[in-house]
Specification:
Strand order of the largest sheet: 4-3-5
Structural class: mainly alpha
Shape: flat
Strand content: 5-15%
Number of helices: 6
Number of strands: 5
Helix content: 40-55%
Distance between the termini: 103 Å
Radius of gyration: 40 Å
Largest sheet: 3 strands, antiparallel
């Protein structure tokens, strides 16, 4: 009489969890398909790495890491920033934090900047004043605002209320938009009436 042993439980080949074995047939090495797949990926990745090392594709010693440090001077980018920087420079000169032998260099730099600023101001011309608003257009804008009120509307509804064609109404509102008398908004965002469908809801207000 011969006695043979058969495991009834084995650890999973990937996660180590207990794997119950069937009474006959092939032994189960993994507790589920996920563990089997991960173990397979690990084996194949190891074989691919070995093949790449043998072929010289992968280096066994990584290349040297080289770090290049570039120091850039930081300058203010706005007039307010330069004002703050020059105020601090004046304070450093006054209290002695900036050595006195640098005073001549600072003076030359500031004199050049002051002269260039003077020339720039002399050459600057103010922008032209905006043209006066046409009273007729201003009255049209007020009339539209009275008709619309604070409630959302559509081009189709507004054209019907004013007894205008939708195309004609759109052109009128576009003209008022262009000169800054009206602004259309959807969800608090300003939009052009030219981009709205006739059924799209919007509110109309002053720009």
């Amino acid at each position: 009489m011969s006695v043979t042993g058969r495991p009834v439980q084995m650890p999973c080949g990937w996660c180590g969890s207990p794997v119950e074995q069937p009474p006959a047939g092939r032994l189960r090495r993994y507790c589920n398909r996920s563990c089997r797949q991960r173990a397979y990926e690990t084996r194949t990745a190891g074989r691919r790495l070995g093949a790449d090392v043998d072929a010289g594709v992968v280096r066994t010693e990584p290349a040297e890491r080289i770090v290049e440090r570039v120091v850039r001077a930081r300058y203010p980018r706005t007039a307010a920033g330069w004002e703050t920087a020059l105020t601090e420079l004046s304070a450093q000169v006054a209290d002695g934090r900036l050595p006195h032998w640098h005073a001549e260099r600072v003076h030359r730099a500031l004199s050049g900047a002051a002269e260039q600023t003077r020339v720039t101001i002399a050459e600057w011309t103010p922008p032209p004043a905006p043209p006066p608003v046409d009273e007729r257009l201003a009255a049209a804008a007020e009339a539209l605002l009275r008709v619309v009120g604070d409630e959302p509307t559509t081009l189709e509804r507004l054209a019907a209320a004013l007894r205008l064609d939708v195309v004609e109404l759109r052109q009128v509102v576009l003209e008022l938009e262009h000169i800054g008398l009206l602004a259309a908004r959807r969800e608090k965002n300003v939009v052009s009436v030219d981009e709205l469908r006739i059924h799209a809801r919007f509110t109309l207000g002053q720009n």
